[in-house]
């Protein structure tokens, strides 16, 4: 059976990549050298091609290659829905783990980025070698390049971690650039988008830590005659350790197909130097403008000196950037269906302040880039607020990040949206709660009724989004007295939108991190729910066994709890309670007369059954159910996992029991 030319070209390229990964050329050279040496010793006849093939077969290299290249055929697809370029046949490695399918277009240019290993991660110098099957801390490398995201498989943490992974990156993605022709070296030189590498450490308790965030300029490969280059990348720490090396990765870059004409190294260096100079000039001009704007703001009232007006913020690499650059218009595609569901998703990302070495109670200044925040899966209130504001802007709302304080005067950030009718709504990004703002009129008569404030926010110093920055210049910065009329210059002092665009608009400067897309969840909700439920049943049975109590499960009651858990999650997403009447009616039918029913729902952000059970037992209500004594005691437990983008998940558990009271 003959293959079409495009398919044959794709298949040849995949086989070529596989043979390169096996270092087949080096092994063939070794066999050739040994065979020629033997031929010199014998010196009976010249070396033929048959002799060389026989030598390869004797050493098992041919069998090993054929065993490694196991072809897995793809299922037939509907021709009508087929994409213009079919998914290439993929190969199965020795561990029988199928490689991810990649759509290869022979007319397009690709960058093959390989990580060949790590070294000098001295924090793990004393770590013992993990035993087979032992749970240990792991490293995972995440990559973002031109709207494409990938991650490596987890590897055990070590001084020299076995981080070996390859990523095929499209140079032109989602219609960027001229996709109708092969991109040449000159065009690629003008593409200044870096490859963003984020290294995450996950400990044995599934807690994640941001190890390093690095922006890789890949254009050095354009000067290589072979279209391939290899070099070491020094990863720096984050936060207070941003000047301290965290480790080194060996990285290989290769262009497919190879370039017919390369660029000189001097041209690439000149281009990079010009980009840095242009960025530095824009940043310097904006800094001069920001200082002048700040002086004008202080001249309005001396009390403005104490207001929380934050123009710049430091990211995980210690780089000061305008706060407006942390917000972008982010569309979630099919992954999120509404603004309230977006707020729910953001609230499921754990809240954790930036770590500080030592005491003193001081708060570490660190706003994370969006890529680092989503890969880590947790961050401070500023990270949550900027992500929620970006998503709400994507849904077409007039959204802003507010910087101020909440109760007890603690610094805080939250999100504000303005309706077309002038209504103001506050969104708490950590909880997804919404509050309608109704200001108090300080000039109204003393006995006039005033609106009671429902929000926890105390003061607001400034608001901003991706193209606007406004400082509060009202006599009082108390939230309950504030008017959010941003067009009124006597209430809010605005920065020049043109000045903000010069350093915050996408593509304005090369130092801006590229905006990553959201990733769809990879969790199987049904399988994960079943696994957690079985683990929870085991833990409850063992706990009751320690108390000399028997455990009898009621599967029917367990099934009925599902509707309640679904209603709880829907209420968190929409703010509307529904389905409670049906659940109560079903429980009444399932519990006989003279019996008592008790239930205890609880919500978690992780899938660790032991951690969840230990926390549940701290509640007297839950302990009363788990340790229930009585006549004809029947227990029930139900777990529902609701997955969201970035593998954030809402985990709902409900414990229940029914028994005949013998009092």
Automatic annotation (TrEMBL):
It is found in: Cytoplasm, Cytoskeleton, Microtubule organizing center, Centrosome, Centriole. Residues 365-495 form the CEP76/DRC7 peptidase-like domain. Pfam families: CEP76-C2, CEP76_C, CEP76_N, CEPT76_peptidase. Residues 524-660 form the Centrosomal protein of 76 kDa C-terminal domain. GO terms for cellular component: centriole. The keyword Cytoplasm applies. Keywords: Cytoplasm, Cytoskeleton. Signal peptide: none annotated. Residues 104-260 form the CEP76 C2 domain. One of its GO terms (biological process) is regulation of centriole replication. Residues 10-69 form the CEP76 N-terminal domain. Belongs to the CEP76 family. Centrosomal protein involved in regulation of centriole duplication. Required to limit centriole duplication to once per cell cycle by preventing centriole reduplication. This is Centrosomal protein of 76 kDa. It comes from Menidia menidia (Atlantic silverside). The lineage of its organism: Eukaryota, Metazoa, Chordata, Craniata, Vertebrata.
């Amino acid at each position: 059976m003959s293959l079409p030319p495009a398919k044959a070209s794709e298949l040849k390229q995949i086989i070529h990549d596989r043979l390169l990964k096996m270092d087949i050329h080096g092994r063939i050279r070794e066999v050739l050298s040994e065979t020629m040496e033997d031929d010199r010793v014998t010196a009976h006849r010249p070396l033929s091609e048959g002799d060389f093939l026989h030598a390869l077969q004797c050493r098992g290299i041919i069998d090993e290659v054929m065993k490694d290249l196991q072809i897995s055929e793809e299922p037939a697809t509907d021709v009508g829905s087929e994409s213009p370029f079919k998914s290439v046949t993929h190969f199965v490695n020795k561990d029988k783990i199928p490689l991810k399918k990649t759509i290869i277009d022979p007319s397009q240019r690709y960058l093959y980025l390989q990580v060949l290993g790590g070294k000098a991660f001295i924090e793990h110098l004393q770590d013992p070698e993990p035993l087979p099957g032992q749970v240990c801390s792991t490293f995972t490398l995440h990559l973002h390049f031109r709207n494409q995201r990938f991650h490596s498989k987890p590897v055990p943490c070590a001084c020299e971690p076995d981080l070996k992974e390859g990523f095929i990156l499209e140079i032109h993605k989602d219609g960027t650039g001229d996709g109708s022709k092969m991109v040449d070296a000159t065009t690629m030189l003008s593409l200044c988008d870096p490859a963003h590498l984020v290294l995450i450490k996950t400990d044995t308790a599934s807690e994640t830590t941001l190890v390093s965030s690095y922006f890789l300029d890949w254009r050095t490969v354009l000067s290589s005659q072979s279209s391939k280059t290899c070099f070491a990348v020094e990863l720096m720490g984050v936060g207070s350790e941003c000047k301290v090396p965290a480790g080194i990765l060996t990285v290989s870059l290769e262009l497919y197909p190879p370039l017919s004409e390369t660029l000189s190294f001097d041209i690439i260096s000149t281009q990079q130097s010009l980009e840095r100079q242009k960025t530095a000039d824009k940043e310097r001009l904006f800094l001069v403008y920001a200082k002048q704007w700040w002086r004008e703001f202080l001249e309005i009232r001396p009390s403005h000196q104490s207001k929380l007006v934050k123009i710049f913020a430091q990211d995980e690499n210690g780089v000061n950037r305008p706060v407006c650059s942390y917000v972008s218009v982010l569309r979630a595609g099919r992954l999120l269906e509404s603004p309230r569901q977006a707020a729910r998703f953001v609230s499921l990302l754990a809240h954790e302040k930036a770590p500080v070495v030592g005491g003193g109670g001081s708060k570490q200044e660190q706003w994370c880039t969006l890529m680092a925040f989503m890969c880590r899966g947790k961050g401070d209130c500023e990270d949550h607020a900027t992500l929620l504001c970006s998503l709400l802007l994507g849904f077409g709302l007039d959204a802003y990040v507010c910087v101020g304080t909440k109760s007890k005067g603690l610094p805080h950030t939250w999100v504000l949206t303005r309706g077309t009718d002038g209504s103001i709504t506050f969104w708490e990004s950590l909880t997804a709660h919404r509050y309608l703002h109704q200001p108090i009129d300080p000039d109204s008569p003393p006995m006039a009724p005033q609106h009671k404030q429902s929000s926890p926010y105390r003061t607001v110093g400034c608001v901003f989004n991706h193209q606007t920055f406004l400082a509060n210049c009202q006599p009082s910065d108390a939230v309950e007295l504030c008017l959010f009329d941003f067009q009124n210059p006597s209430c809010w002092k605005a920065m020049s939108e043109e000045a903000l665009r010069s350093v915050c608009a996408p593509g304005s400067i090369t130092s801006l991190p590229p905006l990553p897309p959201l990733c769809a969840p990879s969790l199987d909700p049904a399988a994960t729910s079943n696994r957690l439920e079985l683990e929870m049943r085991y833990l409850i049975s063992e706990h009751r066994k320690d108390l000399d109590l028997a455990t009898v499960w009621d599967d029917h009651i367990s099934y009925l709890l599902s509707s309640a858990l679904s209603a709880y999650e829907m209420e968190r997403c929409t703010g509307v309670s529904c389905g409670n009447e049906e659940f109560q009616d079903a429980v009444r039918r399932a519990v006989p007369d003279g019996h008592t029913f008790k239930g205890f729902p609880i919500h978690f952000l992780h899938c660790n059954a032991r951690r969840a059970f230990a926390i549940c037992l701290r509640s007297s209500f839950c302990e009363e159910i788990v340790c229930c004594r009585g006549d004809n005691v029947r227990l029930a437990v139900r777990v529902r996992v609701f997955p969201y983008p970035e593998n954030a998940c809402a985990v709902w558990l409900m414990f229940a029991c029914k028994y005949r009271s013998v009092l």
